TrEMBL record:
One of its GO terms (molecular function) is transferase activity. Keywords: Transferase. It comes from Methanobacterium formicicum. This is Transferase hexapeptide repeat containing protein. SUPFAM superfamilies: Trimeric LpxA-like enzymes (SSF51161).
Length: 215
């Protein structure tokens, strides 16, 4: 049986399987698979609640999940993933190695998030979305220069985001839209459009790309 780091600071490792997953039978085929050095239940405030994770999870080494996180079934992480507080995640979601989800995020189902993706506070990601490696989203238009409401991205259903793309705060990526690798996105992308270049220009997707992702 896998061991978890004690989120309350003790050097002693404690088994928290039942607390977080509600599983008490090692023969249960849906029981989670947890690698070494996984930290579950980081307390960020008094009376925060342990994270809840559905069936058939796979948490790879050095994953850290804060309190007040709710995750559905068939969840997988790469190594070194961070999921902060007040985040909800649906079913069949993959989060790649070294990806950071900063909290207060709403993430749907059937989603593939590749390695080294940065997802800031106040992000909404709908179902069937693909986020390529090293894509970077922001939520602060004027860092440290003025008071500004933090606005993360809105990624609508079935959108695909290419590797190494960068987004200004508050950008909405329309349903079924695609973002080319390396694009710098400075304005909203309409549904079923392609954003390409730096700064990104928009053009309609070819007919054969006007469909949702199969994830």
């Amino acid at each position: 049986m896998s061991l978890f780091k004690n989120p309350w600071g003790s050097n002693e490792k404690t088994n928290f399987r039942n607390l977080f997953f509600g599983v008490d039978n090692e023969n249960d085929p849906d029981r989670p698979k947890v690698h070494e050095n996984v930290t579950l239940g980081v307390s960020y405030k008094f009376r925060s609640k342990p994270p809840q994770i559905g069936k058939n999870a796979l948490l790879r080494s050095n994953t850290v999940i804060y309190n007040d996180v709710e995750i559905g079934n068939d969840f997988q992480t790469g190594h070194g993933v961070l999921v902060r507080e007040k985040t909800t995640i649906g079913d069949k979601v993959l989060i790649g190695t070294n990806t950071v989800i900063e909290g207060h995020c709403d993430i749907g189902s059937n989603i593939s998030i590749q390695s080294n993706v940065y997802i800031p506070k106040n992000t909404l990601i709908e179902d069937y979305v693909f986020l390529g490696p090293c894509s970077c989203f922001t939520n602060d238009r004027y860092p440290l220069r003025s008071d500004y409401k933090l606005e993360g991205p809105i990624i609508r259903k079935g959108a695909s985001v290419g590797a190494n793309s960068t987004f200004l705060s508050g950008i909405e990526v329309g349903e079924g839209a695609m973002v080319a690798a390396g694009a710098i996105v400075t304005r909203d992308i309409p549904p079923y459009y392609l954003a390409i270049g730096a700064p990104a220009k928009h053009k309609p997707l070819p007919k054969h790309f006007k469909k949702l992702n199969q994830i």
